[in-house]
Amino acid sequence: MTNDAQGTAAEIVSDGPSVREMVVNVGPSHPSTHGVCRIITHLDGEVVTEADLVIGYLHRGIEKIAENRTYLQVVPLTDRLDYVGSMYNNWAYSRAVEKLMGITVPERAEYLRVITCELQRVASHMMAVGSAGNDAGATSFFVLAFWIREQVVDLLARLSGSRLTYNYVRPGGVSFDIPEDGWVEDLRALCKKTPAALEELDRLFFGNVIAKDRTKGIGVLSAEDAIAAGVTGPSLRASGVDFDLRRDEPYSVYDRFSFDVVVGESGDSFERSRCRLLECYESLRIIEQALDQMEPGRTTAPSIPRLIAPPAGEVYERIESARGTLGVYLVSDGSVRPWRMKVRSPAFTNLSVVGTLAVGHTISDLVIIVGSFDPVFGEVDR
Amino acid sequence: MKAEDLSERLLKEFPDLASSFSIDKGEAVVTVSSDVVHDTIERLKGFGFNQFEMVTAVDRGENLEVVYILHSLGMKVVIWVRTFVPRDAAWVASMVDLYTAADWLEREVYDLFGIEFRGHPDLRRIMMPFDFEGSPLRKDYVDENIIPRPDYI
Amino acid sequence: MAIIDDLGQTLEKMPGGSVILTSFDALLDWSRGHSLWSQPMGTACCAMELIASSFSKFDLDRHGTFPRADPRSVDVMVVAGTISRKMAPAVLRVWEQMAEPRWCIAMGNCTVSGGIFHYDTYAVMPGVDSFLPVDVYIAGCPPRPEALQDAILQLRDKIRNESVAGGRTYEHKLLLPTSSPRVAIEDRGESA
Ligand code: SF4
């Protein structure tokens, strides 16, 4: 769209884009968009001049469906929001209902929630890191990361009965206590051996000179931009903002554990992915501490009725999910169905910066930038 | 920070907010009329609420309620800003000039609730197809798929 | 596929041609059924299980099924995940880009009927069979990766019954997937 001599001479279409600019449509079914996202890119040669993200291809109207379900029937729906980390959605929703009802959750249930959610964080980050590596061409890295994920998923499946959509954390507690088949021992063994595997991952990808060349300096998000754009979670911390809900506004029993918050510096794609990997070590530390501190007891609050009808009012509860601050805004009108449920999804706000970040990079870097934000489209589109 | 401490500090800085400030279930809430909501949020941003966490709407019959939730990384607290707009002339000022995060979030509310955000640079549908008609999250939206249920199931 | 289709019809009309036809069918169906490259049309939660099934632990590769995100070079489309009304035209477009012969596996309740989102929504298609021909349905929310493997084997069985001559199908008496001989030929066709 320039007016220099070449540009005007080459202008063939009068009211379309000039021949120097090309429009390439990526998606909605594209292997590197991590789901169903469509990116309309305007290219000058290979360089992106404008990237317009079109989302909504997985919009299922969960917020509307929830208005026609009872409070307990909503829990399986929340599983399907962020399907890489279902536990978080269960938990955030359950916390909102508990706050509306004024239920106190038994301590053992809180510990079980922490343990499962930190396991979930490992599983989710492995998916995120692996597929981010896959975008850069490291398929063997993805396979290795997925192998760790499979082990975690196996444990969660033994606990909750499902591999993906757990429906485990429910208003008032959790659905099952730990099985008696040596689950705790297996979990401890996993916590022992996973750091070595993570180490290997770290060396395989983040120590690799090709991967560094491919991802360093790509999609740099400054701390100010990240805050203004509402970016949360590992993507925010990679930009150098030291904020983690688990430590800074502790909910549940997180104030009883000692763990470090992983903070990056440069805020590029490399840093974002690496922060996720390093967070897994901290999650494993939290799990070990929780296993030590946990005591036998009830796993559900006594006398939760089947048909919950909380008093009228509205609450907003937030937890730190694998992607950032996950909030559930719940409005009750005193009946057995929620009047309105709104999920503040971290992936949605994180993804909204991709369009501006991609400008000036090549189209192959665009793929890496999208991957480094770890969008899960069930949660983006809801 | 607790909402009580926040109310102390906030009301010292902005005494005129006292009439609209309340604490509901441990959350600080500011309820203002829709023409000053941009102004209020601008002042809150200056006060230290640097993250725009979300904006959403609730169908309240006659009116639509618009809820903004702001978060402060420094003070580690959230604040709600609530306002009401009439159902058939639903509009509020856009916050995109204050927080870039408002861009997509406001598009979503526009798409699903039909609330116009005046001053938004790019107000298009975001979730539904561009040729979709209606505001599906309003309670009066009719779709043959949506079946009212009795209270016991 | 035009040459092969014509060949099938010609063979069928030739005296003694059906001997060649059945051997040819056996060869073709065997080769088609054992290298079902798949287009992973994963949109939602089920896509996670789709990915898991092609990775180390479950390894769909050993059945000859390999995800290939390129509609021109695949044989089977695995639709895994909720299909919204906005997404449906894109799925159909990918399906139309696939070369014949093509098959479709509907993985998960969402693709079978809309599943958990069947009622009360304004945005979800009630199953992919409302706009695509589906060969194998897998129930589950999400189905386990083993179920997808079973679906591939079932699809292979279905392919073994196909003939290049239009309207003709085979029936296999034995259910074991590998060692069943072709025991009976049944003409269903108007063309025969
Ligand atoms: S069938 Fe269940 S798991 Fe699969 S996409 Fe639908 S909701 Fe998700």
Could you explain how this protein is built, in words?
The complex is a heterotrimer of chains A (382), B (153) and C (192). Chain A has two domains: 2-54, no CATH class; 62-381, Cytochrome-c3 Hydrogenase, chain B (Orthogonal Bundle). Chain A is 47% helix and 13% strand. Chain A is built from 16 helices and eight strands. Chain A has helices at residues 5-10, 62-66, 74-79, 86-101, 107-135, 139-160, 183-206, 209-215, 223-228, 234-238, 245-248, 269-293, 346-351, 354-357, 363-372, 377-381; strands spanning 21-26, 38-44, 47-54, 169-170, 173-174, 313-320, 325-332, 338-344. A three-stranded antiparallel β-sheet of chain A has the order 1-2-3. Chain A starts with a helix and ends with a helix. By secondary structure, chain B is α/β, with parallel strands linked by helices. Chain B has three helices and seven strands, in the order H-E-E-H-E-E-E-E-H-E. In chain B, the strands form two sheets. A five-stranded mixed β-sheet of chain B has the order 1-2-5-4-3. Chain B has a two-stranded parallel sheet with strand order 6-7. Chain B is globular. The mean pLDDT of chain B is 84. Chain C has 192 residues and is an alpha/beta fold. Helices cover 36% and strands 14% of the residues of chain C. Chain C is globular. The two termini of chain C are 20 Å apart. The model of chain C is unreliable at 173-192 (pLDDT under 50). Classes of the chains: A alpha+beta (382), B alpha/beta (153), C alpha/beta (192). Chain A binds chain B through residues 55-56, 59, 61, 63-64, 68, 70, 99, 225, 227-230, 232, 241, 243, 248-249, 307, 313-316, 318, 325, 327, 329, 331, 335-336, 339-340, 342, 344, 348-349, 352-353, 381-382, and chain B through 24-25, 27, 50-54, 56, 58-59, 67, 69, 71, 73, 76-78, 80, 99-101, 103-105, 108, 112, 125-129, 136-137, 146-149, 151-153. The structure holds iron/sulfur cluster.
